[in-house]
Amino acid sequence: MLEFVLERYNYWIVIILMMTGLYIVFSRGNLVKKLVGLNLFQTSVFIFYITLGKVAGGTAPILIGGHGGGHGEDQGEDQGGAHGEGVQNGGSYGSDAAHANDLASPVDGAQDAEPAAHGDGAGATYEAAADHGNDAGHAAADAAHGAAEVLYSNPLPHVLILTAIVVGVATTAVGLSLAVRIREAYGTVEEDELDAMDYEAEFGVPEPEGARS
Amino acid sequence: MSPELALPAAFLVPLMGLFGIWAGAKVSDNVREAATLITGGSLFLIVLGLFTAVGAGARPEWEAFEVIEGLPLAFRIEPLGALFALIASGLWIVNSLYSIGYMRGNEEKHQTRFYMSFAVAIASAIGVAYSANLLTLFIFYEILTLSTFPLVTHKGDDKARNGGRIYLGVLMGTSIGLLLPAIVWTYAVAGTTDFTLGGILAGKVDEAGPVLPLLLALYAFGIGKAALMPAHPWLPNAMVAPTPVSAFLHAVAVVKAGVFSVLKIVVYIFGIDLLAETGASDLLAWIAGGSILLASAIAMTQDNLKARLAYSTVSQLAYVTLGAMLATQMGVMGGAQQIAMHALGKMTLFMCAGAVYTAAHKSNISEMAGLGRVMPVTFGLFFIGACSIIGLPPLGGAWPKFFLMLGSADAGQTALIFILMISSVLNVIYLLPIPIRAFYMAPDGRDGANETGEGRALIQWHAMKEAPLFCILPPTLTAAGCLVLFFYGGALYDFLLPIIGGA
Amino acid sequence: MAGPVESYSLVDQLPALQVVVPLVAAPVTILMPKGRVPWAWASLVAAATFAISLALLHQVAAYGPISYELGGWAPPWGIEYRVDLANALVLTLVSGVAAFVFPYSYRSVISEIDENQLPLFYAALLICMTGLLGVAITGDAFNVFVFLEISSLSTYALVAMGGRHDRRALHSAYNYLVMGTIGATFFVIGVGLLYAATGTLNMADMHDKLAGMETRVVEAGFAFIVVGIGLKLAMFPLHLWLPNAYAHAPSAVSAFIAATSTKVAVYVIVRFLFTVFYTDSSFEQAALSYVILPLGVVGMFAASLVAVFQSDVKRMLAYSSVAQIGYMLLGIGLGSVDGVSAALVHLVNHALMKAALFMAVGAVMLRLGSRHCDAFAGLAKRMPWTAAAFIISGLSLIGVPATVGFISKWQLLKASFGGDAAWAGFLIVASSLLAVIYIGRIIELMVLREPPTEGPHAKPVAEAPLEMLLPMWALVAANVYFGLNTELTASLAMRAAEALFGVGGGQ
Questions:
Q1: Which residues in chain A have their CB less than 8 angstroms from residue C197's CB?
Q2: Which DSSP category does C311 fall into?
Q3: Closest Cα partner for C340 from C505, C498, C125?
């Protein structure tokens, strides 16, 4: 049990950060503090993605077999189909150190390493791939075998999270500038006071005591 | 004009009339009124042509366009619809004449809007009459509600606003809340909403289950225009409108569109055989019976003449619903005839009420004592109309009562015959005293003494103070109609025979 | 159609152009002088975008789905733009509404925001449209998030621009930002979990990989996505950000986002529920019948009820939007082809009516400077065309025949009764009656009251300018036209729903 928990320490970090962030968003009355909470919340998701990207025994994505061929839709589908299992096996073949693979099975990059692996999935171990495959398949399989001890970082989540960070920065910027504008217009950034002022603007009378818990 | 061509024309003419009224109003009031009358006249001719064609066995059809896949806006004329359209368009002319007298006599405002709304209302009433499926019927039913709203709230004061709110609330509430689901449910069950002789639901629903009575109840109450209690409050509240509106819309077009829809749905969607076999309509027949008696009872308590007539209408409309719910051939026949006969009779009464209001500015019955002596024609016509509503021969109103009693007997519902008899007695009690008081009772002296002058003469020819000719002529026509239709009852029976499966 | 993009004719590039045109046009707008230039430019771009989406819709309707490989990278590795009927419909809707709202906006906008911000305003509007179009067109789950945030961020800015007129806009924009960001982040967590489970971000590919997979990871991903998008589409009770944002935003912005942004979010949830996840999986069945359907129903009633008591007309319409989204969720929750088709129809139809309604309110804002219902008293006499537009689109909202609202109701009822959910049918009509009350209230004010003779609204008032009336009436006409001819709405929506469910010839 303890091992189960400890093994997944990265997820615990994510969850704790996430909940802390959300809690701050909902509990704080100060608009700037809320934004800090929001940032924390988003950051937890960045970590989540990055931690997903760790694959034990993955390899770099090398596309073999020509650009055009690799883009053919039919072939692409087959690759996709065959590959999920192939790499998962590849992963578990090696050390069990990174639990990330429990969740993150295949890696796009590694998929590309076996362009011709038309295995039926379940039995597609690297031997199967080798049986079927051509030289490229062998090479890729060897690479996968050799890299089993390596903790490989899948670049795709990094790229995704780079985008998400940009979005996060933009959100923070917009949020903070809104806070500044609110401060200019209302003279405060405290939610309670803003609500009270809005209430008065809406109904023309001050908000009654205890209207909001 | 061939029937196929006349059918679209029946919609085109009011539409052109709408434009004509609008454009005519820019010139002068007379041109505007002429536009109304010309439109009414041409529409009547077209509808009459269609009526005779249907009588000769034709069933003109027109599919305008498809609204939702498999559900077109389509029209198909069968005898019931042809009859309703004929009555509506015929009485529109009469009513237009009357409106001219009334609206000018009372110097009402917004007359152009008034006539334009009327044109839309009549077009939608014809749409209801000629509809070939439930979707078409519903579309025109709703347009009818909306187009009459400006008429009900014509006066624009608080009372009119309140009346309008109830009017729209009840009619839209029932139609959207009950009728629409009923229609879609029917569509989901039967896969079609086409009106088909013999019904479309037979074999599609569990005949012993609760679906059939539930669906029928949804229709009966969902068609709020039929004013089946307790969906009736809109009707008395609509009486805030000018009298021509009450006379035409709330005795003919709107309310008859309601009961016509009930009848049409019972005959062409359920099929009377299905209802007779399953007994799904029994409960509703009793509710209709209750509505007849209750509304009559309420009518007796009303002092305002228009309110009394409104409750009388509620009661009389329930006759049609009752005829439909009896699910016998004679019941349906009685209901169908009631649509025609009641329209003529009740319109006479309303127009007389309006004439009294125009000439003497009186709207309460208690103030009308002795008024007949100076307005003999008006109250004479009122008497004829009242007798027709009660169902006394030789007036047209006698026939539907007769057929309804036959229908009740066929259905084995002897008690309903008694209800019909009691109701006739109640009709006598609340309608006949009005002309009798007007002719035989001395004015109560509060303010009418000088007007009626001295002496005990029944009619004081020298002191006559009748309403304008435009207010007198139209009820004369309808009263004559009541009389004539008595003698054409047989022809009407033959005409309607196909809807109950006769040759 | 699929496969490497060999030819480079313009027609083949339409899916990319759909997003690229407004995206590139936006920064250009910033450089423009204030005055009518940015407005004319944005309107032109919107019209061009509309033309592109119509071309796409035509192509998809005639020849089947289009798959566009961005940069020539084949899916599932590259980002794929995939246009099928469902999103072609949404694309057309978004760009169509833009093509009418943008031309309408000028007079309204200069009266409500700081004139110096005009170029920025139109740039933000274009970016917002870009984001919405991007969400609809993309076949990549992460891309959805990116575009969702592109549109949301610009929407926050747009809402905040109402702050010149009423400072509450700033506060609303802030709340919207917090809720919107939480929603988007939830969504991205969900996508991450799905990526972990499947190793792909391409929606079609994800669908293949998810076959038979009912693990905790997938379920958690599903839950995060539903909640995240639920926030974006204002699913009751996650709607709290919406009423204030819509009420305080500049009128033209309200008209645009009310008609499009929640609709696009609805599309996203439909996309995920029916083409990414498996409709017959136990967790989705549970979510449909125990979460989405009940929340839709509760939203229909609760929001309509709140709408009845609003005195601010824009906020009333905003609550009504929440209620209308309830209808869509109900359709989706039925989980049948009919239900989803009804939801899609209502999505389009509701956009038409809400855009017209908000535009009418915008015209009143322009002339009377108020959106309080008192300003509407006697409006039929003071601004007859605006009042008539409000009445017709209001009737459409109620669901009166010969308007689009009726078609929506009909389809929803058909789905309910046909799907053995007769109770849902009755609830739909019951909540329509609430719409009768809140719309009827305003109509009564407009038609049956005299214009106020004292108080702030007693000034003499002219009809709205023609440049506002024309686009407004174009949408009103659309409300009636599509209420009578449903070839483009109901029929296409039905085909789209069939395609989503993979029945009816895969179209």
A1: 103, 105
A2: S
A3: C498
pTM above 0.95, yes or no: no
Torsion, Cα A99 A103 A105 A106, to 10 degrees, reads -110
Q: Is C168 on the interface with A (CB under 8 A)?
A: yes
What's the CA gap between C358 and C246, in Å, rounded? 10
Q: Residue type for C133, please?
A: L
How far apart, in whole angstroms, are the C-alpha atoms of residue A6 and residue C472?
62
Query: Residue C2's closest chain A neighbor by CA?
Result: A73
DSSP category for residue B210: S
CA distance B338 to C344: 46
- Supply C242's token pair: 């919406």
Over the range A45-72, which residues count as b (16 or more CB within 10 Å of their CB) and which as e? bbbbbbbbbbbbbbbebebbeeeeebbb
Helices (H), C138-278: 141-160, 168-198, 203-209, 216-232, 241-248, 251-271
Could you tell me which of C262, C228, C263, C225 has the C-alpha nearest to residue C243?
C262
Per-residue three-class SS string for B228-246: CCCCCCHHHHHHHCCHHHH
Is residue C397 within 8 A of residue C435, CB to CB? The reply is yes
* ipTM confidence: 0.86
With b for 16 or more beta-carbon neighbours within 10 A and e for fewer, the A156-177 pattern comes to bbeebbebbeebbebbbebbee
Query: Taking a C-beta distance cutoff of 8 angstroms, is the pair C490, C413 a contact?
Result: no
Rounded (10°) angle between helices C422-448 and C313-334: 160
B389-399: burial string, b at 16+ Cβ within 10 Å, e else = bbbbeebbbbb
Q: Which helix (H) or strand (E) holds B357?
A: helix B329-360
Is residue C198 less than 8 Å (CB to CB) from chain A? yes
Phi, psi of C20 (to 5 degrees): -70, -40
**CB-CB under 8 Å, A105 with C199:** yes
Per DSSP, the three-state class of C312 is: strand
Q: What angle do CA C398, B123, B331 make, to 5 degrees?
A: 90
- Written as tens digits, the pLDDT of chain B (503 aa) is 677 788 888 888 888 888 888 888 888 888 888 888 888 899 999 988 888 888 888 888 888 888 887 788 889 888 888 989 998 888 888 888 888 877 777 777 778 888 888 888 888 999 999 999 899 999 999 999 988 888 888 887 888 888 888 888 899 889 988 999 999 988 888 888 888 888 888 777 777 778 888 888 999 899 988 888 888 888 888 888 888 888 887 778 888 899 999 999 998 888 888 888 888 888 888 899 999 999 999 988 888 888 888 899 999 899 999 888 888 888 889 898 888 888 888 888 888 888 888 888 888 888 887 788 788 888 888 999 999 988 888 888 888 888 988 888 888 888 888 888 898 899 898 888 888 888 877 765 544 444 444 445 556 666 667 777 778 888 888 888 888 888 888 888 888 888 877 64
Q: Do chains C and B touch (3 or more CB pairs under 8 A)?
A: yes
How is B123-160 classified by DSSP, letter by letter? Answer: HHHHHHHHBSBHHHHHHHHHHHHHHHHHHHTTT-SHHH
B453 and chain C: CB distance < 8 Å anywhere? no
Taking alpha carbons only, the member of C183, C291, C186, C294 closest to residue C238 is: C183
How far is it, in rounded angstroms, from Cα C290 to Cα C274?
A: 17
* Angle between helix B282-301 and helix B414-431 axes, rounded to 10 deg: 20
Phi/psi of residue C35, nearest 5 degrees = 110, -155
B214 touching C (Cβ < 8 Å) = no
Count of other CB atoms within 10 angstroms of residue C385: 18
- What's the gap between Cα B320 and its chain centre? 11
> Chain B: nearest CA to C413, how far in angstroms?
6
